[in-house]
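Please study the protein below:
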Amino acid sequence: MTKTDSKKTLPKPDTLEQSVGSWLVRSLILLAIVIFIGHMQGKQPSLRWFDSAERGSDAPLVMQGGDPYIRALMRTISASESNVRNPYSVLYGGDRIQDLSTHPDRCITIVNGPNMGNCTTAAGRYQFITTTWQAQAKRYHPAPGGFLFWQDYSFEPQYQDEVVYRWLSDSSAWGADIRQLLKRGQVNAVLKMLSGTWTSLGYGIEDNSMSDELPKIYQKVLQQELQSR
């Protein structure tokens, strides 16, 4: 029987680069876990409800400050888009959402009008559909959340207001200075300009019982906004 030598291969000691790399990987994993836990805690249903007995344009904005002409326009939009109590939590059709930590993205069947039979994700005071909310929140949301490369945007009342306010105030988004048009009394021109986005404003395809009253409503809430400054 031939005797053979059995040599065990000893493990090579870790190099400095390997040690540092391993430490970085563990640190990044730990950081990711901490961020994820924090994000999920922020996803708990929002209990900071806006509660108002007023409907639509009569309901005050949650956002504080800002130009009174733009604020009055925002309230006017809600007169035709969400003429209910507590408009920030309403879905198309009248159902309510409890969790305002993000856009609900719930597609509800349209029951009348030219789009009957389709579904819409319209939600909140300004009846944002999901794609419009994501696009405009990406540009105007003051406090975006998210994880690494994924972005999320709170749909709480304050942020619904702030996104719309910044959007309406951005002349590059509309090709016109809406505030100056309103100051010159051209509310009908502004409503027509916006009717492609909010189709209930009197020049779109989905007018409702409030559409013809919007210029008067605007003047009423404008006086309120000017007096409250």
The chain has eight helices and four strands. The helical segments are 16-42, 68-81, 130-140, 157-169, 171-174, 178-183, 187-194, 214-227.
